[in-house]
Amino acid sequence: AEEQAMGDVDGDGIIDANDASIILAEYTLLSTGDSGTFTEDMKKSADINKDGQVDSVDSSLILSYYAYTSTGGTDTIEKFLETSE
Fold first, then answer.
1. Distance, CA of 58 to chain centre
2. How far apart are CA 80 and CA 61, in angstroms?
3. At residue 38, does pLDDT exceed 70?
4. Which of 43, 49, 61, 85 has its CA 20 to 30 A from that of 9?
5. Residue 18: pLDDT band by 50, 70, 90 thresholds?
């Protein structure tokens, strides 16, 4: 199986607000002590800041990237994160 692209948690080929909301839903589950529903691939894809956690920070980074691409930005999410640090 092909590894999921960073940020494309739902695997539809687009990094958008839907991916951000999926991450928030998972984060909500995890914060209640639930083990969550993400596969390992989804966790890797969702951990945007590479801190080992799937959380609101990752969701926020996806929303920032989505805003950037929605206004004509063409960098990959990896490149976008490098330049926005």
1. 5
2. 10
3. yes
4. 85
5. very high
Cα distance between residue 18 and residue 9, in whole Å:
9
Per-residue burial over 7-41, b = 16 or more CB atoms within 10 Å of its CB, e = otherwise: bbbeeeeebbeebbebbbebbeebeeeeebebeee
The pTM of the full predicted model, rounded to 2 decimals, is 0.91
| CB hemisphere CA count around 64 (13 angstroms) | 15
Please, are residues 28 and 21 in contact by the beta-carbon 8 Å criterion? no
